[in-house]
Design goal:
single chain; alpha/beta; six-stranded mixed beta sheet; four-stranded mixed beta sheet; 17 helices; 12 strands; globular
Amino acid sequence: MCRVLTLGILVAVTCALACGPTDGTARLTFSGSALGPEGDIVRRQLARFANGRPGVRVELQVTPDSADQRHQLYVQWLNARAPTPDVLQLDVIWMAEFAAAGWILPLDAFKPDVHDFLPATLAAARWNGALYAMPWFVDVGLLYWRTDLLDRAPRSLVELREMALRLREADAVRFPLVWPCARYEGLVTVFLEHLAAFGGGILDPRGRVIVDEPAAIRALGFMVNAVNVDRIVPQAALTWQEEQARFAFQNGDAAFMRNWPYAWTLLQDKSRSRVARRFAVAAFPKGDGGRPAAALGGAQLAVNARAAHPALAFELVAFLTAPEQMIERGRLAAQLPPRRSLYESPEMASALPIPLDQVREVIEAAVPRPATPVYSELSEILQVRIHRALTGQQLPAAALQEAAREMRVVLARAGLSQEARAQ
């Protein structure tokens, strides 16, 4: 009996989701961040969209705020060919997976105006040359530096090392430089910035693995030396994520820190921060043969391939990614916009707590992670091998050669290697 009732409830829920209202109203569902200020902003903007469109009802489909749990739910729903949510908030590293699976619509048919978006955010929104998502807000890796200990940010990795060594030798600070270096996705973003600094990468534009090439080996070698030879990064950081690094910097124990924009407001809180008003931010500096870099994070908006009203769903995406909504998000959630023009906007400058003149150069240096359907598997391989090098279990060259071999196996199995594509 219980099984019959459960089945009946599931059928009823599925029908309600698929069929929608029967009163002639067009219903859209949106799924994304719904906690705290982000949730308040989303609800306000969804209501504003619906109020301007008689006959349209927009609902917020709440998901866990944990990215991993939300990803798991999305995969379950979309793999089951669910028509809702109509519009989904995607992490930048999910888009290629969802596009390759056929779960989200290519957006080029809607003729989106993308000229104002930062190139790195559009690169992360494309798969096989087609646009599958619209950038919503940006996260970038920042190099925080102490203005009471230094008169300027380092212009190169050579200068960063020299500054850090001088501070260590003068016993001016406990930790010259702190990174989040535990074995998790954050470690890959730190490595990505070192890669770009030395002119390397994870995959080239054709999808070929290049993480074992000389530039990449030099990048990992710099990271290993920073921990184990120069000792400008503490061994303890090999177990740290973002918050542990923030606490070290916030307590005045570090001169440099690699972290995300969220830390800015917390560090300026005089009631709990010893470095309030005594720090600034810059892009991670260039090394030999590379350029300043900042790992790209953030969110994109995509349309469910089985949405009942795809054109209306894209209209909601366009509304939420318009400048007015981005300024509101900056003011209420301190989120950085992906539109270049807004970095010239006095409204955005007054909305954000972080100075735009400092963050703009970092945004321009943004580097996306590889857009590939198997990114999660590639990242897991890199996390293991990079961490083994940092802990002295493998030499940098050997670690990256093993990583590259394993990554090529994953790509070949998925039919994404150069050989598989040729066949």
